[in-house]
Each structure stands twice: as structure tokens, then as C-alpha cells.
Amino acid sequence: MEKFISKVKNDFNVDVVDYMANRDFTSVVLQFSNKYTEIVLDNIASGQSLENMAMSAWKYAKNKNYVKPFTLEPIVQHLNSHPLRVRIIADLTVTYYVIKEMVEEMEEEEEEEEEEE
């Protein structure tokens, strides 16, 4: 678990503030920086959902064979808005790709705003 925690911190600047692991899945509570909190909340307000991003990441991981075919769908819970905290209940590999999907969505939105200016 320590390797996962340091990887998401290094790759996405997301903090793991709590977790519970068992044989089938892991429940991870993540906290995003203020910068990403605002962008994610804007994305949610414009119609995107955490659940859709999670499902997209899950399908990607399954299609690439990064997880077993019977891996359960992720569950995402929005816990807090300032700063953004979410709980992801899923296989750790799926959790990683859910975070990646959220961050990529956020970065794409940020790039579009910069181009408009």
C-alpha cells in the first residue's frame, strides 16, 4: 500500500488520507489540491460525474487487461468539496486509473481555458 500511496502522490499530487484493504478491493480516501478541487467541482457542475470518470477508467483497465475480467466496478463517493475528498472502492489498479482519468479530465479542461485567453 505504501508503494501505491507514494505513486499517486508523485504521479498526480493526490494525498491518500485513509484506506482499508481486503482481498477483493481497497477503499481509499483521496484529497485533491485546491487547484484540482476547483477544476473538478467545475466539471461536476458542467455535467460530468465522478461515476462516469470511474466507469471510463474501469473499462480502460479491463480492455487493456490491466485487471482480471471479473474485477468489480468501482464505487466513487464525494465526501467533501473544499478541499475535494473522494472515496474510491475498487481494485487498486482500477483506483489508480480512476485518479488518472480524473486528473486528465481536469488537465484537458485547464488547457482549453488557457487557449481561450
Name the features.
single chain, 117 residues, 4 helices, 53% helix
Q: What does this protein look like?
A:
With 117 residues, this protein is of the alpha+beta class. Helix content is 53%, strand content 23%. The chain contains 4 helices and 4 strands, in the order αββααββα. The protein has a 4-stranded antiparallel beta sheet with strand order 1-2-4-3, covered by helices on one side. β3 and β4 form a beta hairpin. The model has no long low-confidence stretch (mean pLDDT 86).
Brief write-up:
The protein has 117 residues and is of the alpha+beta class.
SSE topology string: HEEHHEEH
Number of helices, counting only DSSP H or I runs of 4 residues or more? 4
Major sheet characteristics = 4 strands, antiparallel
Mean pLDDT: 86
The radius of gyration is 14 Å
Structural class: alpha+beta
Approximate shape = globular
| Helical content class | 40-55%
Task: Give the number of DSSP strands.
Answer: 4
Task: Spell out the blueprint of helices and strands.
Blueprint: H1 2-12, E1 15-21, E2 26-31, H2 34-45, H3 50-63, E3 75-81, E4 84-90, H4 92-116
Antiparallel strand pairs: 1-2, 2-4, 3-4
